[in-house]
Amino acid sequence: MQKVIIGAIVICLLISGCNYLPSPYDVVRAPLGRQAEDINEDTSLKRFIPSYMVMLTPENSGNRYKMRSVDIENDGQYELVVFYGLPGTFECKGLVILKGIEDNWVEFHLESFSKGTKYNIEETQFVDITNDGYLDMIIQLSTFNDTKMVNLYTFREETKRLYTLGANRIEIIHNETTAPALALWTELSSKIYEIEIIRWEKDGFVNATYDYPGFFLQLLPVYKGNADDDSEDKNNLLLYADVLMKSGDYTNGFEQIEKYLTVNEADNDINKMKAYFIKGRCLYSLGEMIMARDALRCALDVPDFDVETLIEAKLLLAEIYYLNNYFDLAGTEVDGCRELLYYFVNSNYKAHIWQSAYESKKEQLELPKE
């Protein structure tokens, strides 16, 4: 059935020739940054890539260059980023970054993608995400069965590492006073995204989702359109309430999540935990502390749970207990979060996000340190 979404009309009027509902990512996606001019292919550079590979222009990458020049170390000396792959294909097998030392090229960084997986580079961006003076490299990858992933590479010697970000797409949000933030888009179904925002602080990423209400405000027409078009679709209702909450519209967020909970009758649905958390956070922000407490308790009672939502619910419930002078209960909820951190042992950025959230809450509530 052809979707007719009222919220998209406004967007379509702003986009010349628009005759379809854009995905939320398309609505706010920034234009590609200016690319370096193509560099004449130098056969001497081929010795840095595997002998059976060729220098490659990744298909659909938005870059259109076999090489890019970029000053990663911010020292006035440009490095070369060279992509390579199998002859006669657009399949990218890796990349090498070269640094000019006097009259020679030397290897600065080599990255080979997983064997047995066919990758295409959709986009590469260089931005100082970690705020250390070095440009970091963000690569958006897709496989030939359209599975998508995002890798972030940091290059300062003492902190050089790879972060595999749990997202299908990424949006960079630039700030005047802080390091750039990253909006991570996770596609739940066709053009239906859940979004979180992270930002680098000190020595790792922190959750900054609630620091950017304006980012979510511009997404409301799309999510409202999806929810209005099919009010029985649980994901559309839930995600619309989620975006309302993150945009700071707590009254409408509360009303929407109540509508969702009326439709969703399952007792063991992971989304139900998310719904009760949204309800609790909206009520908390509206000053309804007792109702917020009860909603968060309902979230904790859902048998099937999402660890991140569980931690968020516990930390917010701890704050409510603390504000009502139930200090022991506050401490119990915060300590319960510490026990959940082992779930993120295999995620090098999620682990820091939730460890940081746990430690910040203990400090905020003046609870005894470990």
Structure at a glance:
With 370 residues, the chain is an alpha+beta fold.
How confident overall, as mean pLDDT? 79
What's the end-to-end separation, in Å? 57 Å
Order of secondary-structure elements: HHEEEEEEEEEEEEEHHHHHHHHH
- Output the radius of gyration: 23 Å
Helix coverage percent: 25-40%
Low-pLDDT regions:
1-40
Number of DSSP helices?
A: 11
Overall outline: elongated
Reported for the largest beta sheet, the result is: 5 strands, antiparallel
* DSSP, total strands: 13
Estimate the strand proportion. 15-25%
Structural class: alpha+beta
How would you describe this structure to a colleague?
With about 375 residues, the chain is α+β, with helices and mostly antiparallel strands. It has a domain at about 40-165. The chain is about 35% helix and about 25% strand. The chain has helices at about 5-15, 25-30, 215, 220-230, 235-245, 250-265, 270-285, 290-300, 305-325, 325-340, 350-365; strands at about 55, 65-70, 80-85, 90-100, 105-110, 120-125, 135-145, 150-155, 160-165, 170-175, 180-190, 190-200, 205. Helix 10 (about 325-340) runs antiparallel to helix 11. It starts with 6 loop residues before the first helix and ends in a 6-residue tail after the last helix.
